[in-house]
Queue: 2 jobs
Job 1
Amino acid sequence: MTDMLSLQDIVNELDGPREREPGIRRVVVAGEFESGKSSVINALLGKIAVPCNPGLPGRPVVKVNHSLHTMIFAEDKVGNGFQVETMEQLNETDNLAICDIRTSMPGMTRIEFVEVPHHPGKGILPADAKMMAEADLVIWVTISSQAWRLSEKSLIESMPELMRERCVLAVSRADHLRYVDDWEKIETRLQKEASPYFAEMVFIQASIRNLKACRQEEQAWIRTGGPTLASIIHDLTTTRRSTTAGEAA
């Protein structure tokens, strides 16, 4: 059972997600509707931390931060904050704005992952686009079977060019590709068409089966692509932070 906190603890925790603590690097995970954003975060953590289809009335901004104890905080669109024990308890919450998941993230204790929703017919809202622009790193998630559609290209092209130096393309659901030839064809096409917009590209195989196997064997986590992506995040955010510090000096 989740450790429940006092009211003051809840207030303190909910004040935090709006502004990053000093030294926290923010990684924004974005992509079109149902592209596999949650699966990418789960692959990074080597476990199912974010439900892939939680059944929420409206997909909120989902934040994932490090904590020794698993906790879930939420806030609706009028600013009411509360804590729940499971994501299922949020299914009846209307107008959910933020879901802040605190869970153990070994090796990534100073990183905050933010999954921004893509709204059918509206796309990414201006406030979320601003969050992408201010992030230390952006992971754009594209589905392997439909990778790099024109709508995705148009959105990425609208980003400032400097942002592309801290953008990574995550190709989700690669475990659904049945043949090696399919994988190679998609990779070749993406290298040709999408690589100018991204610093790195990685294929993600984060099926529920693979994620559950991560608990028993390290090789299962390696197969998801999570360690490769985690290494890329470390390299790019460390480089960006060093560069920013040098410019400030």
Job 2
Amino acid sequence: MQQKDTGIVLHTLKYNDTSLIIEMYTSLLGRSSYIAPLPRSKKSKVKTSLFQPLSLIEFEATSNPKGGLHRLKEVKPYQTFASLPYDPYKSAIALFLAEFLYRAIREEGQNAPLFHYILHSIEWLDSCTGGFANFHLVFLMRLSRFLGLYPNIEDYTEGSRFDLLNATFSTDTRTPHSHYINIEESAQFYQLMRMNYDTMHLFKMNRQQRFRCLELINEYYRLHLPDFPTLKSLDVLKGLFD
């Protein structure tokens, strides 16, 4: 059965010398896998340049009724990016977030709120002209809402510590496990949870603080998602945004 859909590219893998396997998060099917022939001419309807990290595409595919790989027939851009592929900072963020989403989102089936959140976020990053150094941090914290992992911030008070394992703040000095972060980092983590794309430029962090927050977010997901790995692209962001 032929089906038209919109997808967000998360991961690609060359298969033999003839095909490409593409993992996408789609509007209708959620997390889905596709296979496409490698183009042999400029007239090919499926161009590999369309499958960059977080690319937004419209496509037509033949569905596999038994599950597994669907076969892409025709692909075109959902929209033309203004800056995302050309700005090295934005490209590094896209590479990291694509890998993160590839590892974090396991569900199949339609989830319109999650799809539109990711779509809107990519469009926002592409269109913004500055003040996006905290974008990936805000994106990941807000993503946790859609995955059922958002921390409880109602219990935060000055001097409390954040419990990564139980996703809550506490002033209790007893530590039944080692997954607490210190008071200063907990305050920064709480501040991060209050940011959104429009206000995040008002919250100042240096490169060291930003990367520490990223490490803590990564650890938080590792504690709450089974088999969530250490991301290869994590170090790509290490030297950005002084």
